[in-house]
Amino acid sequence: MFRKGLLIVLSGPSGTGKGTVLRLVRESCHNVKFSVSATTRTPREGEENGINYFFKTREEFEQMILNNEFVEWVKYCDHYYGTPKKWIQDNIENGFDVILEIEVEGALNIKKQFPDCVTIFMLPPSFEELEHRIIARGTEDKEVIKKRLIKARNELGFVDKYDYVNINNTVEDSVREINSIILAEKLRYHRNMEIINELGLKGGSTK
Amino acid sequence: MFRKGLLIVLSGPSGTGKGTVLRLVRESCHNVKFSVSATTRTPREGEENGINYFFKTREEFEQMILNNEFVEWVKYCDHYYGTPKKWIQDNIENGFDVILEIEVEGALNIKKQFPDCVTIFMLPPSFEELEHRIIARGTEDKEVIKKRLIKARNELGFVDKYDYVNINNTVEDSVREINSIILAEKLRYHRNMEIINELGLKGGSTK
User: Domains in chain A, please, with CATH?
Assistant: First the structure.
């Protein structure tokens, strides 16, 4: 009895707490893999090829763009970043659930190419709380904070494009909720048709 | 912050194990209520009005039918049985999740009247296992068993009308899966629009 994996796409403004929650989701689900991006930037200390990123030369990356090998890509600060399609497809085919953390425009592109993906938008408990969390990081000056908040407000306008919302009140609740979404989505009828057929449960006559 | 409750409709052939699983779901979720049917049959020893059934006279029941107070009703062995609409509506409005265990035709009727309900079909691990479980009860003769199996086969043909399937391999997994479906469905975007508006997270400009 074999199931294909699920593609889960998570978005949410910076400061919502996606990183912490996803780390704990990964620890609690052995079947979950995180999508690995490709990039042309130089590896940082400790970063491994195929784990943190697929490190590519500019020529390799541009060829991949021409070959339509990315579900989405961007150029940022003179470096390319992209999500390779094949890695996602291979893992899903092999039964792994793949989580992709990505900003809203990228998420909508992925939904077009993987219509069966499950999209989750992570929200802070309130806009004031988001403001508080961004300021509490203490790493940025006022102007950067203001820009981040404007960006967050813009991103929040896309929440109605997502299947699920997850309000990050506590890390524990968020982890439990995301795990429940993954488990529940695997139980949807349309993802179990083959299994039901294999079990001999549908159609045919009684012996 | 207030949410409406969810209506969960569960079906599945007799012998699948719905009763045991639902009892444990109720024990693990304080927010869940089981739909109480109305009937014209006489209360049995220990049965309480409003808990096991709403006990009605024939005249009362027939008036309720005429008033369109049931989401569905049947006449069986000269007694009426029906699911009162108002009880479900009141509990959902008050934030309770209501679970309704019902056969397939009834479930499809309920979906028409409560389009936002969540439907789950519980399956045995295999048809052979279902046969085994029905025979193991040891309470029925061969002819009755055969009738039950034919009925089960017919019911299984409706599985594609349901949102979710739950294969009852073990009681523990089934309880966990049904709890996950309930939790996940509460996180769907369309059920959280009011909360998102209240939190001031969508639209408007940044302060």
Answer: 1-31+96-207 (3.40.50.300), 36-94 (3.30.63.10)
